[in-house]
Design goal:
about 90 residues; Alpha-Beta Plaits; two-stranded antiparallel sheet; 2 helices; 4 strands; about 10% helix
Length: about 90
């Protein structure tokens, strides 16, 4: 059980200090989460703190590949609009 940081990460450092397990570390080209340390904040918080503070949509995924900050969740832009302007593509 561990979360992953995707290539959408902009290395803003917001998540590093909020992780209760010090599981997030700087790497190239973006931050990574140590699988052995990540507990998804179970027992510490009701939601993973990295996802709660992350300002970037689609930057953190769970073990099933589901985005914790899905498209439109932070901006409020509906997926239909993202598709209309070529900013979202359905999985093939």
């Amino acid at each position: 059980m561990a979360l992953q940081i995707t290539e959408s990460c902009v290395n803003c450092w917001a998540c590093v200090d909020v992780c209760p397990n010090d599981a997030i570390y700087e790497d190239k080209p973006h931050f990574l989460i140590d699988d052995d340390k990540c507990t998804e904040c179970l027992g510490d918080h009701s939601v993973p703190q990295c996802a709660a503070i992350c300002p970037i949509e689609m930057a953190i995924v769970d073990e099933l590949g589901a985005f914790l900050n899905p498209p439109g969740s932070l901006t409020g832009i509906p997926i239909e609009k993202l598709k209309q302007f070529g900013m979202w593509k359905d999985a093939a």
